[in-house]
């Protein structure tokens, strides 16, 4: 009895002590409980040398004060003659200290060094960088070391970002709706800008700087030319002023027809002299207000957006025309390769490659071609986009989607860095073995040195920014991978969990497993074995393998799964669309035979009979069913793990996550049941015993409707 009471008391006390504020994201600065550790930290960092007289310097000082107050309960002294923490740019660092720093020459303008040294028997921590921006990144990493309870006397970190343009893409509209957004409205309150500067803008910049994100595209790729008008440029300027000291540049999406819509030209033909001049003038107008404006992101001739093709011109003509306009100011153009046309009979998976590959080497130096990670569209799993490695003379920018358009939107816990890592590690073989996608986009295997990674943001007005608490991990993880694409998902998950919730092993270990497994779970219960794009139409939430008769065939599910009496899957080998020919011979060889194709891509590349014998010895039908069932069980396991975590997390977060996991389980079962019943019409085979009895029929699942599911484009509702 006594024992029970004690453990009850323990749970009460410890849950009382836990009060993370979800708004603070991974920058939780709660006091370190371990007294020995706390005392040692206090001794090591109490006296700070910081001599920066600038807005970025002020931010650094504030962050040091805030974190030390929270984590260590001290107010650091900044006016001491005997500092033990020295924060200085390299040019102002005492030469004797500078000499003791290792490998400083290796860092780039955004990099930094954090090193513990001994000088005259005294222990000192030096944090240095070439620029103030580098220092800011270093400071955030230093604070992180304390959050992670690291031994400061062993610190010797030399780090620089491997990618130059680390950019969030907001699909935010000027009316504050967010295309594919599941976290409330857009945080940009355009109406009240430029006068009202919301605290969220500052906190947004701080959060991004803490993970090294250095750019933000504020507007939707399906763009509105109004944002280029003088009134909006003033609003943009106000945001740029907030973001600048955090090292963040603002970018806009450029609607290709803007010279007609907001100018008074009759054409937007990129080769027309007046059009060229219009964009040059527009660039000048923007740069006069925002000298560090980043440039434009453009979706052209895709899904109804205007573009150079409307005038018989190419993507190169369009991109280079804009590139010329921003070049005098060091601006860049991010030109999207997400193009496909319903008029072309070619497999949608092939179209971007067919269109863009011939343009290799033809874009101006300040153009990045932005390529989605896969050739269809941000699916739970896709093979890497064949353009990676195929355009060595063009800088290719990775586009990931952080918002979960096809991965359960607002309610599913899915740790996306696992997906991002998988793509970045894929071997393209385009320059021999080891030519990974990561090495292509970080410039190691590209002849061009401009590099970038974009993430479609999952941020909105939700009090915790991302709606689902665990969506924060995806924002965080994107930043870490954009900084260094070779970072492992495992290290990201551990850091995020510790910084956000707790350092306790009993929390971190099981929760790491939960998060790392969560991506495979969603693949299993939505689109196992290479299936893809079988979601409900329009909003993409929930199963819709029966979707057909849409305005265009490549928006339907039947186009992608091709289930019939003979089998299931999209034949992309030489007997089918031959999308496989767009990959290196090594991949072609391996994937042209179902026996050597990895199971995870099987139905992406092959149409196979229902009784096809899988590597496991079971039939394809059995394996499809088993994967759906596995996905459901994985969500059940997630729930079991989460149940044990109550003492480590904020009570509200605990409760809400519980409810969200209930929704996730309900929807995972829906996916399993709906897909199996639908495919069974063709397989005509019994469901294996491992599938629990399905009490509803297919019509029931087909009849489920979700009016006003969030995130859809209003015109598509
Ligand atoms: C698709 C989305 C659509 C986007 C489009 C894009 O369904 O809302 O506009 O991608 O990336 O995934 O342009």
From TrEMBL:
Residues 1-19 form the signal peptide. Residues 146-465 form the Glycosyl hydrolase family 67 catalytic domain. GO terms for cellular component: extracellular region. Residues 25-142 form the Alpha glucuronidase N-terminal domain. It comes from the Bacteria. The active site is at residues 303, 377, 405. The keyword Hydrolase applies. Its EC number is 3.2.1.131. One of its GO terms (biological process) is xylan catabolic process. This is Xylan alpha-1,2-glucuronidase. It comes from Zunongwangia atlantica 22II14-10F7.
């Amino acid at each position: 009895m006594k024992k029970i009471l004690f453990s009850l008391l323990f749970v009460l006390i410890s849950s009382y002590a836990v009060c993370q504020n979800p708004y603070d994201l991974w920058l939780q600065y709660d006091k370190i409980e371990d007294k020995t550790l706390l005392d040692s930290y206090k001794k090591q960092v109490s006296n700070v040398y910081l001599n920066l007289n600038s807005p970025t310097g002020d931010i650094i000082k504030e962050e040091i004060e805030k974190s030390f107050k929270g984590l260590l309960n001290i107010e650091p002294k900044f006016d001491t003659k005997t500092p033990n923490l020295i924060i200085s740019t390299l040019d102002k660092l005492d030469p004797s200290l500078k000499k003791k720093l290792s490998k400083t020459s290796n860092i780039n303008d955004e990099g930094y060094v954090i090193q513990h040294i001994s000088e005259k028997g005294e222990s000192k921590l030096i944090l240095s960088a070439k620029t103030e921006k580098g220092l800011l990144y270093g400071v955030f990493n230093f604070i992180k070391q304390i959050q992670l309870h690291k031994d400061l006397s062993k610190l010797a970190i030399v780090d620089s970002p491997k990618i130059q343009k680390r950019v969030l893409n907001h699909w935010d509209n000027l009316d504050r709706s967010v295309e594919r957004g599941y976290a409330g409205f857009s945080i940009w309150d355009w109406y009240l800008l430029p006068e009202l500067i919301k605290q969220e803008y500052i906190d947004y910049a701080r959060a991004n700087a803490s993970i090294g994100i250095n750019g933000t595209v504020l507007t939707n790729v399906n763009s509105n030319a109004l944002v280029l008008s003088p009134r909006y440029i003033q609003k943009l300027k106000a945001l740029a002023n907030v973001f600048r000291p955090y090292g963040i540049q603002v970018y806009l999406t450029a609607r290709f027809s803007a010279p007609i819509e907001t100018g008074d030209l009759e054409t937007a033909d990129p080769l027309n002299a007046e059009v060229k001049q219009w964009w040059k003038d527009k660039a000048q107008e923007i740069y006069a207000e925002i000298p560090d404006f980043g440039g434009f992101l453009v979706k052209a001739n895709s899904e109804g957006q205007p573009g150079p093709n409307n005038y018989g011109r190419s993507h190169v003509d369009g991109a280079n025309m804009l590139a010329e306009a921003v070049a005098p100011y060091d601006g860049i153009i991010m030109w999207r390769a997400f193009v496909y046309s319903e008029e072309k009979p070619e497999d949608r998976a092939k179209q971007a490659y067919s269109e863009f590959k011939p343009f290799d080497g033809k874009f101006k130096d300040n153009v990045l071609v932005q390529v989605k990670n896969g050739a269809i569209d941000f699916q739970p799993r896709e093979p890497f986009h064949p353009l990676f490695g195929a355009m060595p003379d063009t800088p290719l920018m990775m586009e990931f989607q952080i918002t979960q358009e096809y991965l359960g939107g607002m309610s599913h816990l899915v740790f996306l860095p696992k997906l991002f890592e998988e793509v970045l590690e894929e071997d393209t073989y385009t320059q021999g073995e080891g030519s990974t996608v990561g090495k292509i986009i970080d410039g190691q295997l590209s002849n061009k040195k401009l590099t970038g990674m974009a993430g479609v943001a999952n941020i909105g007005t939700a009090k915790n920014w991302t709606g689902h608490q665990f969506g924060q991990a995806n924002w965080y993880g994107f930043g870490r991978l954009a900084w260094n694409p070779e970072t492992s998902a495992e290290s990201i998950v551990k850091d995020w969990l510790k910084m956000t919730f707790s350092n306790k092993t009993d929390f971190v270990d099981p929760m790491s497993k939960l998060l790392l497994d969560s991506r495979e779970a969603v693949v299993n219960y939505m689109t196992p074995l290479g299936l893809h794009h079988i979601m409900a139409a329009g909003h993409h939430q929930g199963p819709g393998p029966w979707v057909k008769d849409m305005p265009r065939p490549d928006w339907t599910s039947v186009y992608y799964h091709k289930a019939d009496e003979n089998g299931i899957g999209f034949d992309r080998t030489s007997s089918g669309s031959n999308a496989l020919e767009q990959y290196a011979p090594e991949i072609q060889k391996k994937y042209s035979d179902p026996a050597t194709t990895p199971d995870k891509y099987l139905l992406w590349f092959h149409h196979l009979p229902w009784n096809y014998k899988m590597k496991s010895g079971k039939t394809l039908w059995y394996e499809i069913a088993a994967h759906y069932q596995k996905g459901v069980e994985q969500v059940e396991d997630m729930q079991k793990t989460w149940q044990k975590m109550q003492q480590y997390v904020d009570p509200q977060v605990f409760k809400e996550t519980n409810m969200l996991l209930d929704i996730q389980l309900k929807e995972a079962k829906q996916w399993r049941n709906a897909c199996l019943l639908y495919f069974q019409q063709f397989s005509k085979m019994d469901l294996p015993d491992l599938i629990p009895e399905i009490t509803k029929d297919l019509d029931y699942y087909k009849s489920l409707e979700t009016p006003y599911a969030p995130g859809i484009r209003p015109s598509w509702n």
